[in-house]
């Protein structure tokens, strides 16, 4: 039976759950301003930040199964925002890169996200934003370490 304790760890868990819900709602709001599906937004952002990626690399960065990433890639290609190109180092390998339309979409996405982030943190000091980023990064690293350990030691 799952209990809702009052420990500090449980408080962090409740806060993280609230953040996940809020991020889902925020993604919906951001996607209304963009001509692509909400599910495509993280892939566009990652391709913009990292350049051409193999589907497996994109899946790893998205923390999803390759089949999920493949569906997102297919949608981006169908919509004209991405294309499959030959890897310059191995002609057998295909990478996904943004098309010019995808680059425009990524730039628009960046502008929308930047505006939302400025609104979100308008009443925070730069030091508060920095401290929040450090704390969230540490939580993410801890969760990732636990997830990796769980993958090595299945129940």
Write the layout of secondary structure elements.
Layout: H1 8-32, H2 41-50, H3 55-62, H4 66-78, E1 82-86, E2 94-98, H5 100-120, H6 126-152
Give the gist of this structure.
The protein is mainly alpha-helical. It has six helices and two strands; from the N terminus they run ααααββαα.
Walkthrough of the structure:
The protein has 155 residues and is mostly helical. It has two domains: 102 residues, Arc Repressor Mutant, subunit A; 35 residues. It has six helices and two strands, in the order H-H-H-H-E-E-H-H. A hairpin with a 7-residue loop joins strand 1 and strand 2. Pfam families: MarR_2. InterPro entries: HTH_MarR-typ (IPR000835), MarR/SlyA-like (IPR039422), WH-like_DNA-bd_sf (IPR036388), WH_DNA-bd_sf (IPR036390). This is MarR family transcriptional regulator.
Q: What attributes does this structure have?
A:
HTH_MarR-typ; MarR/SlyA-like; mainly alpha; Arc Repressor Mutant, subunit A; 155 residues; 6 helices; MarR family transcriptional regulator; two-stranded antiparallel sheet
